[in-house]
Every structure is written in structure tokens, then in C-alpha cells.
Protein 1
Amino acid sequence: MRTILTFFGMVCLSALMNSCGTGSVSHATPGEGEINASSSTAVVRTAKGQVAGYIQGGVYIYKGIPYAKAERFRAPEETDEWDGIRSCRQYGPVCPQPARQGWANDEIAFAFNWNDGWSSEDCLRLNVWTPNIADSGKRPVMVWLHGGGYTAGSGQELPSYDGSSLAASEDVVVVTVNHRLNVLGFLDLSAFGEKYASSGNAGMLDIVAALKWVRNNIAAFGGDPSNVTIFGQSGGGGKVTTLLAMPSAKGLFHKAIVQSGSMLRTMESRYSRKIGVATVKNLGLNASDIDKIADVPYEELLAAGEKAVEQVKSEAGKDGTSTFIFGWAPTVDSVALPSQPFDPQAPAISADIPMIIGTTRHEFTMTTYVPSLRNITREDAVKFLENRYGDGTPKFLELFGKAYPGYKPADLIDADFVFRPGAVEQAIRKSRQGGAPVYMYLFTWESPVLDGILRSTHCMEIPFVFNNASRHSSMTGGGPEALELASKMSRCWANFARTGKPSAEGLPEWEPFECNNRATMFFDNVCKVTCNHDKELIDFTMRYPVRGF
């Protein structure tokens, strides 16, 4: 049964990761309605030239701004200057990526409502939403890093990612980023010489380049380059975690939020290099003609790379290696990423960075994807648990009831034990530093959409932190309870970006997470802070890990 659970987790990971002001509640959505796209308005001068956006719903919007350029498998460089005014009114290209499988599931496609855009390897683009460009506002800047693991996704992928509501309601500047992914962003060819020394972390170096663009240009958009918060979900949370350990990113951001993405460990060069070598071999190339790899069609390159990942993954499994994501992910290369991000401890170079870390209650909701389990009885749920916990099942039930009193039978198989243990461990290691504080949350609100099958699934909190419960109503339902929680949660995120302390009217005092209290904010129709509510449960379940971290 453990194999089944592991397989289910991997299937869900693929499906989901590839989906993957006043504070008052309003039914009007900023960034919608009448548009002013005149050539004489919304023009900003950046370091490389002028860009023209548009104004909608009182928000200045810029899309597809180039922040860097890069040759295939090379580190990013500054983009070229341009003459005149460059139109930046539509989203730029997304990195080429595998076809999304989620479209085959009508219910999930309806709820997530993806925008897959158009692809090009010339994808180093970012988007900006700001309340004003001409007032030297020095607003907090919030840079969003999208999910999709390190394989898929974009800064426009979900309706939730639109920055209009957050910018307007909380007077912040929102930035979303596209960067290189999968084989284009994380193929480690360092075995083939200095020219390719940084190829295994090219995608992360793209993000560093985007943060440098923010440092150099965001003041012209009303933002404060000395007050930048990076935040991301799932793979985006992994990117935030990795940036906290990258010397080249130090000083480019000042606060960090990890949502369902506490990836404490990542690839090691002993394996990422083998993947690179195997990919080259699969393409029929060798060291003497390695430069031909720049001209290999993307689909052929991806196929060779995916084959290499499986080849090396099998070898790593025999060695007992276990990481959250194997293959396309940052690699410890002693330069761009000198050590594992949060293992065995939090990185010293970011000890002064306050953090928020959290997850949703259900994450990989089994009942969402297996309809026959949606009305599971307690008796059948217990039988299901016995396949994993054996004689320990009664103890699990005891501890689960203590952590989540009043639970439903489906909670026994839907509750997350993949992301939350890693999130707690990351918070523990951050707290042990004795530096800047860390705050922990658990998002437990359940969507009413599609008769409630989505529950508190992976990605469910994103519309709330962006104050987009209305814009992404196919996921949240757009009802008054969702709008109220979105107002509170987005205010927390914005206040954290502003001051380093999350708070919002109508919420209890959110105290920092400490190793002895494990204080956790529950975000739901009734929000509360609890301490150590699931410590015993997590400690117990970690004896039966579904997958390694």
C-alpha cells in the first residue's frame, strides 16, 4: 500500500504542480473594466528603455517586460537597450514545457482555469502591477515565483496570479516572473567545461537576474527596492527556499514566504552531472561536439533529458538517495548554490530574513482525484490506513483526533503528511538560528465549488493571498466567506511585506513560531492560533514516510 500511496502522491504532484488598501471586502475587481492604453499614459523609463503599459481599474499594468537575455544553457546577461517606447501590454512567452495533463480532467481544468500562453526559449520576462508610477511611493514590492516544480508553469498560469487586487487593496507593487524551466533551466552540463559551469542552475540564476532588475528599476514603478519580499507556492516555494541559500541573491530581497514548498534538499552534483552526461549521450553527442546541443530541437532535447533522469534516478534509488524532486531542480554546485538550502540547518546568509512558512490542510487530496473515495466511510478509511500504519493505526487515529477534533472520515486519507512535516522542519531550523522570526500557518478553508470536492487542496490558498477570491471564483466560489478571508489573508501578506510582521484586522495576534510552541495560524472562516496541535501526530507519521525530503 505504501507503493500505492507513493504513486498517488507522484500523480497528484504532476497534476497539481503543472497547474500547479482598505482591506474591505468588495465585489468590484481592480484591474477590470475600462482600459486606458494611450501612448501618452502608463509610460515608464527603465534602465534599458521606455515601456508602455495600461491602466485598468486604477491599476497600472505592465506585462512581458524583458529583464535579461540568455543563450541556451548559459547564465543570463543584461538585456539589450531599445529605442522608443516598447509596448508591454500582453504577457510574454513562457518557457517551453511538457504538455499539461490536467486538461483531460474537466472538473480540475474548470477549477484551475489555466492560461498556458505561448512558449519560446526567449522567455525571461516579468509583469508589474502598481497603484501609481508618478508619486515616488516607495511601496513594498512583492515578487511572486510560480509553481509547477522546476518543470512547468509561468507568472500568468492561474487567474490567482493577477496582481491587480493585491496592488490596489494593499498599496504594494506586485511582480511575477517567467524563467527557464526543466531541461532548459536545470540541465547540468558542467562536466563539459567552464562554458557550461552554471547550466545546472540557469533557471535560478534567471530569478536572481529578475531580482536585480527589480533593484534597478522598481522605483520607477512606485516600488521600494530596499523592501522586497519574495513569495511562492509549491515549486515557487522551493525557489524561495533555494534563493535563501544563494550568495548571488543576498541583498536583493528582505523577506520571504514559502507556501507548500519547503524543499529542504535539492539535487547533488554527483547526480545532476550524470544526468547531463547521459542526456548528451542519448542525443548522440560527446565532449568534442557538445556545442551542437544548442541547436537540438526542444522536444528532442526534453525527451533525451527525461530518459536520462529516469536512468540516473534508478541508480540513485539503489544508493538510498531520497529528495523531494529528482531531476529538474537546482543543484548544489559549490558556486551558485554552495550547500543544501536548509539541510542540515538554515542558511546563515539569510538569517536576517523574516519568513512565513505554511501549507494547506489537505494538499494532495486523494478524494478530489478518486471519485469513488469521496463518500468513504470511517470503516473503509480505517482499513485504508491499516495498509500503511498496520498495528499503529489505533495510535494514528488517537493522535489524529487530538490534532483535528471533529474530523470527517475523508480527512483520514486526505490530510497532508507530505508538505507539512517539511514546512515544520524548515520553521524549526529557521527558528534555531535565533535571527529574524518565522511565522507558521495552516490553510484549512474548504472550497464549496463542485460540491466541495476540492477541499483545501494544493494551490487553494493562492487566490486568498492575492485577494483574488472573486477573480478566481472557479476555485473559491467567490462567495462572501471567501471574499472576507481573502481580504484578511492578503492583508497579512502585505503587512508582512511592509513591516516583517503579519497582521490584519479581525485576526488573532500571530505570534512567531518557536521550537517549543510551534505556533500556527489557522486560516479559515474562523481564524485561530494554536500551539503544538499536531506535534505528536507528525512525529508519529514520520516513522512511515510516504516520500523522502
Note: The two ends are 20 Å apart (CA to CA).
Protein 2
Amino acid sequence: MAQNLVIIESPFKAPTIKNYLGSNYKVIASKGHLRDLPKSTLGVDIENGFEARYINIRGKGDTIKELKKEAKSAAKIFFATDPDREGEAISWHLANVLGIPIEKTRRITFNELTKSAIKSAIKEPRNIDIELVNSQQARRILDRIVGYKLSPFLWKTVRSGLSAGRVQSAATRIIVDRENEIRAFIPKEYWTIDADLATANGGRLTAHFYGRNGEKTDLADRESAEAVLDLVEGRPFALTSLKKAVRTRHPAPPFTTSTLQQEASRKLGFQTQRIMRVAQELYEGINLGSANGGVQGLITYMRTDSLRVSADAVAMAKSYILEKFGDAHYPQQPRSYRAKAGAQDAHEAIRPSNVALEPELIKKHLTNDQYKLYKLIWSRFVASQMAAAEFDTVNAEFDVNGCLFRASGSTIRFGGFLAVYDDAEEDEAKRAHLPELTEGEVLTCLSLLPEQHFTEPPARYNEGSLIKFLEEKGIGRPSTYAPIVTTIIARGYVEREGKSLKPTELGEITTDIMVKHFPDIVNYAFTAQMEDKLDNIASGESDVQTVLSDFYEGFAKHLEEAEKTVTKEDIVIPEKETDIVCDKCGARMVIRQGRFGKFAACPNYPTCKNTKAIDKDGNLLEKTETAEKTGQLCELCGSEMLKRHGRYGEFLACSNYPKCKNAKPILKPVGVPCPKCGGDIVARNGKNRSFYYACDQYPTCDFRSWDKPTNEKCPDCGAILYVKKGKKLLVCNAEGCNYKKELPKTDE
């Protein structure tokens, strides 16, 4: 009997889904997109309705071949790519590659990797939603036009290798605008006066100067502060008003993509890319051991702007809260939350798939990052369904010779949701607790503390606050926030300074050009309106050609005008002078940016072409020997082979260069036998200055791996274990095995 075929995006989800569906289903991953616009050409026929020309992505040939083979023999084919526009487009491309008409497609989506969600989805397939696909295509075509048309303009006017993007340019402007606000800021002086007061029965509290004659009064200088001190020094503080109240504080809603990124940045110190990577791991499934049900997806889909929660999840939370905390901690009615205007609401909010899987219960099965993020998501969701917290608040006012001082305090009356989670920037429970006070009593002033302050400029954005701004302005969507931040840093327009984001000189110059010549691209409102238009395509209220035509008409005019009026001579990138003296002509060298980072260059280029290597702080790197004798002979000419240092690390090269150009990588054994032929595993240099592991007999033996193999065996299946690239994690890469083990931390 032929099997049913389920096509997903990520291979990491395959074992989980296969386990839930059983032997009658085969699960294969497309590993993302199979088709895209070509890199070498625009790939969009602007004159003929913005028709896109898609081609198969290089390197995807084997995957396409396998999918076609499996599809040919499959009883039914289900497209189970991610439940968003990008996933819908991938399913559409898959259907095209496999030759399946859209009206015959079986598209399934699930918000969480649980048995019930997957079983339910497989029972109710639908056709691919072409309007969602069109929305994704419009975004892709729009971004391609902007990038493909603007980038060459920047190459000619600023510097080769630059790129511009529709949303990244607006995001860079946000950082640049804030930097300009900081530069333009003029500090203003102001003063505060605090009074240390004592009650008759020995209680202590601090009251703050508020105003005079019942009105708020600002103390702008020392003279103003001294005038108040003259009025109150040596006088008793009479308590003229005492107000007690009970204040209620409701829990925050469960996470959306934006709020998760903001809160994980603030509380955990994670960068946006790290947050989304870990969230993806939690969504795709973790092996919790047989006692906890094996491999399970721990959270719902993590790209969402919805605050909606399913009835089943609400009931699950209610059951947990009543059992763990009692009736008092559950509200009279289940809580529901309303998303902001314009939210797509395609999925639920981010929540745990199973509330019963408490973070502490499964901690040993998670990496440290996974545990921290899961605990944050779990706690926020459970708290969002709990009763409000209540505080006893006290506000006291003191009159001293016409001067008004105030003091306030609060204590927790009932913790409610605070038993699980507190989202406050400052712990409210730690606010001042006032002693017992009686209206009309007189307090003794023990000391007065006048203090000078100056207003501070607005803070630079960090990743969390930038994402909050993007969301508030409607720039981008949940799936684009992390790539936006990553892109503007990678392109050299923005750099990190601690946790803050600061524009580079290149970013400021490029933004200045964009503001002058392409104002729509960097206009916040225009960018947000474009997002709304893309949403309208998804809902069927607009069509691709109308949206793209309206945009391109204005964009083409701006581009034509800019190409006529702006030249490279109009753009001057200031160069930072160093203390490094050129040893060829005596000039002070300047810092320049190259393909592989910053370097020191002689300002007299091209007359003097001297350059020197520098570190990230602009300090001259000590010159090292570029070649070492090895004693090995060149197999081509018999000369000695030398060890040299190149862009991608060490390599062997013939000493008779350039007459003999023999060169080869240095193979570094890792002390592990090849699992295929028993030869030695060696580390090899790969592209982009990274490395991989391969058999020393390659290509005779074709074993290769990006992860470092070890001599340890998997306790579940007996295969060798690998150290996961870029992580402190020991994993089994055998098909169908999900064994993971966190490695102990070291001082490295």
C-alpha cells in the first residue's frame, strides 16, 4: 500500500510529525525555499505586469529529485510548511515543482507540534491560499526591485558593495534620527529636595518636594532650591493629607513575536537572532525522554502578532492554576486579550503547548538557553490567565510653610499572577513601605538633601526598543523583525555599542542620501502603508499589479532624478585618522573599510598603496611571519613547501611561487576515525572563513560534516555523537534520532 507524503520545511520536525502520524505517512523536508528569483538578474518583468521569473535554487537539485521521486509513488501529498505567508509561498513553489495544480493541493497547517494538532490538521486539508501567496510574492518582488535598482546607485555614489532595502533603510533611519536627537540635545539643570522624616513613634520615611502653594513647582537652579530650603529648614512637617487605596494590577497578555523579543532582550539579555533561533528549537520539538512523552513541540508557532488563545489552552491553564494555586488565583471569568489594530491574527499568541510541562520538570532535557526562554514563555502565559494582583497604596502630603512635600508607598495585599511572573520594569513589591501615619500629625525633619541634576538625552535604541518602535509604527511584520536587525548590522550601517545600536558613518551618509533622493523608502508612514497594502493583497482587497504599479511609478521617477543629479564627488565619507605613521611616505594612516573589515591605509592612495592590519579598536596588529618552513617537498617541482597564512587560515604553498602555484589546505586530524572507512577525520577550511570535517581520503571516501565528530556513541541508537557547530551541545545526527546533551561550561 502506497504511503502518504507530508512535505515540511525543517528536517528537525520530521521525526516528531512522523511519530504522531504513524507508518502510513512519510515525512520529508524541503529545507526552506526550492525556488527564488535569480541572483544575477532582476528576475521581474516590470513591463509585463511585474511577472516574476523563478528558478530552482542552486544546491537544491538533490532535494527536488528526492521530492519528485517520493511524490510519484505517494497516495496523497500534504503540504505542511510553516503556517504563515512564507510557508504558504513555499507550498505553492513545491506544488509547481511537483506539477500539482493548485485546485488539487492538500495544504495543512498546525500552530503547535502536538499529536492532537497534527492529527486534526491532516483530517481537514485545504487548497493553497493563492491570496496569501500573492502577498508574499508582492513583498519579494517589491524588495527585489528596491534592492536591485538602488544598490547600483549606491555603488556609484558612495561605495561599491553597498545595498539598500525597503525596510532596512527605514530601520537604519530610525537609528540615525535618534543619534541626531542625542547630538542636538542640550542638557537642562534641575534640582530635587528630599526630606528625611521621623514619626513620633520612631518610623522613618522620605518625602520629595513637589511644589508651592498647592501647585507643581520646578526647581530650575540652585537659587530656586535654596529659596525652598530657606522656607522649610528647621520647621515641622505637618501631614495635611493621607490617602489610602487598593490598586489593582492586571497581568500582561501572552507573548507575540514582538513582545517576546523585547522581554527576552530585557530580562535575559538575548539578541534577537538568538531569541528566534531558540524559539524555533522549542517549537520544532525537544526529546523529553520516554517518561515525558518523547519528542514534543514545547511552544506554539513563534511568528505571530495575535493575542488569541484557543479554548483548549484556556481550559488547560485554568485546570493548572486551580490545582496549583487555588480558586483565589483564578479570575471570575477566563481572560481574553485584544490584539492591536492591523494584527493579522492568523495564529494564536506564543504559549506553551502543554502547561503541565513545567520548566523545572523538563529542565534537564533543555539547553540553558532553551530552559530560560521556555520558562519566560510558560510563566507569561500562565500568569496571563491568573487573577489580578492587589496593592495597598498610601499617598501622604506634608505642608511646610507653604511648601508641599509628598511621599508614597505600597505593599502587596494579594499577589495573584505575581506568584508566577512579574513583567514590571521595576519590582513593585520593593517600593517604599510607609510607617503608620495619622492625618494631622507632625513629623520631625532629620535632614534635607538638595541635589543638582541635568536632563539626559534620549537613550540609543537597543534591539528590544527598536523592535517596539517598528511594531508601533507598523514597519515590518513578526517574521521580519529579527532579519531587519541582523541585516542593518551585517551591512555595516549600524553597529553595537554594548547593548545599544549606533549608526556608523556609512549608515548616516547612506541615510542622508536616501532622505534627500528617495524620501518614500525611508518614510515611516509610507513603509507602514506599504505593509497594509500587502495585508490587503492577502485578504483579497487589493491585487499585486495595482500595489506594485503604484509604488514603482514614484520610485522610478526618484531614481531617474537621483542618477542625473548625484555623483560620487558629492558624497564624502570622512576618514578617521590614526596615530599609525606610514613607513613608506610618512603620512598619518586612516581607517578604511574593506570586504573583510577595517584596515589602516595611507591617505595618499593611489600614489602610496601601503596598508596595515588593525584590530577592531584601530590598533596596529603585530606583524607575524607569513611563511614557515615545513621540510615537505612540492610534488610538482620539488621545491620546499611553506606554511602560509591566508584569508581563510593556514595553508601549504610552494616556495617556488609564482613559477609553481601548487597550494593545498593543511589537514588537521581531530583524533576520530571515519565512520565510513576508518580513515582519519580532519578539519578542512570551507567558505566564508568557516571549516568543516571530512575523511582524509576525501573524495575517495565522501564523509563530510559541519559538526565535529567525537569518539562518543549515542546511548539511544549507537551512532557517533557530534559537537554541534556554534553550540555547547552534543547531538546525534542519525536519521530519526533526536538525542541531545548539553556540554559542561568551560572558561574558554
Note: The chain has a mean pLDDT of 88.
